[in-house]
Amino acid sequence: MSLVRVKEKFQVTLPASVREQAGVAVGDILEAKARGHRITLTPKRFIDEEIALALEDFKHGRFIGPFRSAKAAIRALRRAAR
Domain 8-81: which CATH class? Predict the structure, then answer.
């Protein structure tokens, strides 16, 4: 069992042994859940990271559409590829 201290801004540092065992690396995304007085951090992998990146693009207006049809979507994608 490893103990960690909650620092200013409520930050904690994961001990190296815990990071290695969980396979957590710099830049990984962790899902935080609280149940009662228990906090669980779960590493989220590729698909969750891709969804997070796509949501960031959407928030910053980096998307095209919506489209009325599949043909319209294909036309827009071809135009964007040029």
Answer: mainly beta
SS3 at position 13: coil
Are 4 and 14 in contact, with CB atoms under 8 Å apart? Answer: yes
Q: What is the DSSP string of 18-72?
A: HHHHHT--TT-EEEEEEETTEEEEEEE-HHHHHHHHHHHHHHTT------SSHHH
Domain ranges of the chain: 8-81
Query: How far is residue 73's CA from residue 64's CA, in Å, rounded to a whole number?
Result: 9
pLDDT, tens digit, for every residue of 14-63? 999 999 999 999 988 899 999 999 999 998 877 777 888 889 999 999 88
Task: Kindly tell me if the per-residue pLDDT of 8 is higher than 90.
Answer: yes
